[in-house]
Structure formats: structure tokens, C-alpha cells
């Protein structure tokens, strides 16, 4: 496996910050942005980048000093962060569904897709069944969520 490059780590860092920015809740958004800086500081420093001083200090305090990042640790770090990015994206979508819209006034594309599918299915169901019957969402769209 080729060694992890600075560009790969930087791209994952930027993608994680972008996913963290989608949270409509201010506290969640700020926590995940701050946590992203703290987690990526050692890896970026090990590859020659200069992370923000506060993030680097927090990383050192947590025991994640830049000099501890070996090639194997960087590879493991990338795998962990890619999995965390996927979870963060899912959480951002859930937060947008509960909170409605993100702080910049937009809705994630995944949220729009889910709402459009549900609207289409509900319109079809209401034309076929009386409105007093219970309808469960997972039976309407089993393969889309």
C-alpha cells in the first residue's frame, strides 16, 4: 500500500469540515468543527502542514503528538477518519431532518431526496386508501432509506 500523502489527509480534513458545517444546530456544528481540527492536527503536522496552534495544543494534551504518527498510524488514522466521515454525514442529514435546514438556509440533497420520495409515496397512498388508516414509512419505501 502506498504511503499516505499530505493531499489525501488534507482532502479528508476538508471533507470532514464540510460535513461538520452541515449541522443546523450551532452547538453540534461548532463541536464537530473544533473536534475535526483537534483530530487532524497531529496527522497534518506529521506531514509537514501547520495546523492551528490551538488545535495542535489540544491534540498534544490528548496524547496525540505529531511525532507519534508513524506510517502505520497514518494509514489506520485514514481508515478511522473515513468511517467517521460517513457517520458524520449521516448525522448531519438526521440533524437537518430534525432541525429543518442548515445554518446557511439550504437543505442537504439527501434530505430533499428523502422528502420527495415520502411525498410521492404518501400522495399515492392517500389516493388508494382511506385517510384514517395507519401507514408505516418503512413499508412504503423499504429500499430507499
Any overview of this molecule?
Helices cover 68% and strands 0% of the residues. It has helices spanning 6-20, 26-46, 53-61, 71-99, 109-128, 137-140. Helix 1 (6-20) packs parallel to helix 4 and helix 2 (26-46) crosses helix 3. It folds into 2 domains: 6-104, no CATH class; 108-145. Mean pLDDT is 74; it is low at 124-142. The longest helix is centred in the middle third of the chain and has 29 residues, at 71-99. The chain has 145 residues and is an all-alpha fold. It is built from 6 helices and no strands.
SSE map:
Blueprint: H1 6-20, H2 26-46, H3 53-61, H4 71-99, H5 109-128, H6 137-140
Helix pairs in contact: 1-2, 1-4, 2-3
How many helices in DSSP terms? 6
Number of strands: 0
Given the helix and strand composition, which structural class is it? Answer: mainly alpha
**What proportion strand?**
under 5%
Shape: elongated
Helical residue percent band: 55-70%
Q: Give the topology string: H per helix, E per strand.
A: HHHHHH
* Whole-number total of structural domains: 2
Mean pLDDT: 74
Question: End-to-end distance, in Å?
Answer: 34 Å
Q: What does the largest sheet look like?
A: none
Q: List low-pLDDT spans.
A: 124-142
Rg of Cα set = 20 Å
Key structural traits:
145 residues; mainly alpha; 2 domains; 6 helices; 68% helix; elongated
In brief:
The protein has six helices and no strands.
Amino acid at each position: 500500500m502506498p504511503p499516505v500523502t499530505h493531499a489525501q489527509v488534507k482532502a479528508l480534513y476538508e471533507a470532514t469540515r464540510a460535513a461538520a458545517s452541515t449541522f443546523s444546530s450551532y452547538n453540534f456544528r461548532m463541536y464537530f468543527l473544533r473536534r475535526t481540527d483537534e483530530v487532524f492536527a497531529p496527522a497534518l503536522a506529521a506531514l509537514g502542514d501547520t495546523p492551528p496552534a490551538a488545535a495542535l495544543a489540544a491534540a498534544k494534551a490528548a496524547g496525540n503528538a505529531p511525532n507519534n504518527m508513524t506510517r502505520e498510524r497514518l494509514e489506520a488514522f485514514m481508515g478511522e477518519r473515513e468511517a467517521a466521515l460517513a457517520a458524520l454525514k449521516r448525522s448531519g442529514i438526521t440533524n437537518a431532518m430534525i432541525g429543518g435546514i442548515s445554518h446557511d438556509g439550504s437543505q442537504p440533497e439527501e434530505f430533499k431526496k428523502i422528502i420527495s420520495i415520502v411525498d410521492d409515496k404518501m400522495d399515492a397512498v392517500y389516493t388508494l386508501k382511506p385517510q384514517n388508516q395507519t401507514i408505516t414509512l418503512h413499508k412504503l419505501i423499504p429500499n430507499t432509506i
